[in-house]
């Protein structure tokens, strides 16, 4: 089932929504039945105390008023050596045990310098890329098991991007020219959008969890303006070109492993 249809079935009156609500009520009923069986030999006061402990204090999941923070770790392979990094950081506030306010921060930066050897001489190429985005939103958690918590939610997103390409001993970014310089810089690039989310948290122990998340939503990307400047040793030529834009629906899956701490 597509992600957006799954999300809608959680909140409408469709057959899938009814099935999910029935399963949710069945799981809660089964939990209470187990509590009653394990405490049948105790006094009524002991039953109440034990029930409250099992439902609240003994649960590894966060409760109302708790916070959690998490980061998504990734390992990148390919032609280059293996690299590890963090793709985003999320902070959550549990307004209720099943209702969460969240904000996600996404940041990346890449600096690369390469020597290009040619028959006429060498050129040095440097590339600098940076991106930052903020995405506030909310989550609604579905009661499942003691350690597993499924959820759906939504977020808005706003991001900015910068890109710069610089090449020495060249005036056009391609061929060798002794003493020349070519620079290409993009500014004003940004992204706005809104995503629907589904995810899961698994609590290894109290306050420590791993998870995964998928999203589907609308994004509008503006690529900004690119300014290309060439210097031949005596004069400078500059040209600015608008880079256009793109909009549409987008399905994404966080490729890393989410590791978080609740407190």
What does this structure look like?
By secondary structure, this protein is an alpha+beta fold. The protein folds into two domains: 1-58; 61-262, Beta Barrel (Porin). It has helices spanning 3-9, 15-38, 44-57, and strands at 67-76, 83-96, 99-117, 122-143, 148-168, 181-205, 208-222, 225-231, 236-242, 245-253, 257-262. The chain has an eight-stranded antiparallel barrel. Strand 3 and strand 4 (122-143) form a beta hairpin.
How many domains? The number is 2
Report strand order across the widest sheet. Answer: 1-2-3-4-5-6-7-11
Q: Count up the helices.
A: 3
CATH architecture level-2 label of the largest domain: Beta Barrel
Give the biggest beta sheet.
Answer: 8 strands, antiparallel, barrel
| SSE arrangement, N to C | HHHEEEEEEEEEEE
